[in-house]
Amino acid sequence: MVHAAIKFGVPLAIGVALIGVGIGLFTILDNVVHDMVNKQMTLSPNSKLYDTWKNVTMPVYMQFYVFSIVNPAEVKSGEKKPYVIQKGPYTYRETRVKEDINWTEKENTVTYREITTYVFDRELSVGWDNETITTINLPFLTVANLFKYEPAMIEYVLEAIEKVSGTTLFLDLTISDLVWGYTDKMLAYLKSLPFIGSQIPSDKFGLFMGRNGSDDGFYTIYTNPEKLALIKEWKGSPYLSWWPSKYANQINGTDGSLAPPFFSTDQLAYIYSSDICRSVYGKYEKDVEVQGITVKRYTTPPILLGNTTANPDNMGFCTPNANYCLPGGLLNASNCQQDAPVVYSLPHFLYADKEVQLPCMNPNKEEHQTLIDTDYVTGISMRVHKRLQINVHLQRNPDIDDLAHVNDVFYPVLWINESYAIDESSANQYKSEVGTPLQVSKVIPWVVLGIGILVAVITLMFIVKRVRKSSPPGLLIQDGGNKLLSDTA
Description:
This protein is of the alpha+beta class and about 500 residues long.
């Protein structure tokens, strides 16, 4: 009897023990994986993350889609709203290198600036960037906007327009001039005047002028995994200065390339973008795949740029005060763009109020939304599409002939798609170094648990079989055990 107890008790105990170990491994291995990832995702000069952070190796592209107007005369006369046609993409390859890197170990932070260089890529473009389009005269509107609150100065503007022949509401420019800048005759004339020349920053104008081969300021970010890449300061301050409220001036989130590991999908993913002079956020939408890796997709929700009725928080972005709020889907950026009447939106006025829409626009969520596909485990962004449209607020001004009859409209100039995606080689490296160990850690508890259950079940089966053999012969249980019969009855 003792021999039988040992014979079946030991394997049964082993099976039960394996079941317990398997259940415990779910928690233990999960903690081991978290510790392993946190160690790897700590940013330091000696960390594995450092080299790819310092020199971005994934191909990054900036694509410009420009709008060329086909009815300039009707717009000037006020007969019709602008009708534009889209041309693009005109694609540039970005190179990003971080310089002037300074570490502060006590605070777990690093300060740096990132130099970005753009090189035109003809193969990924519809044509060369010296092609010409007809677009709105941004310097002309900027000057008109600059002095609209100073009536005494309007005579200088009118004189400049009169002196410089050919200065009109619309002009022909190459893609390169519109983006990277050109010398404007009217700005040059105004800058030469003794009284107002100091108020004209430059005689050159371009939407991205001065940004090729330069940086957008010093960033200070956190290096520990719990706050990885979260921005502590930009240009030496934790706040912006362009907006009329403290809420709007907050610098929240990361730059979009990294996030803390194991970032919960219940949280909003905040990103600070110096391009639009504010912090924005993405909301988890769904799981998608990038190069065979399952990632979490975050997109900018419609409410982000909603009007102040739908989103009262946006009252803080009304400039110069709450009496100057724009319709939903728009962001007035004139304060941070040298008083140019620049207004940002998503491409083709996606999610904008009806009063903003133009008949020639075709908003489409898949083509025009901003999205970030992030790996939940490491916080690395595997695919990013940052999309933004640059518009100008065209307003009637009876003192200037070219603006005396125009309709109040938000004129689309161009939109950009700044994007990158992990390549096959990097994806395979991720799978071997992170994906495979992670899958193994998930499988092992189930294997141990399964073996434990199997051993316990087999042992119990043998016990039941032995018990049956040791029962008195001729006794059978029938009808659910409700009736006993004997073969000798």
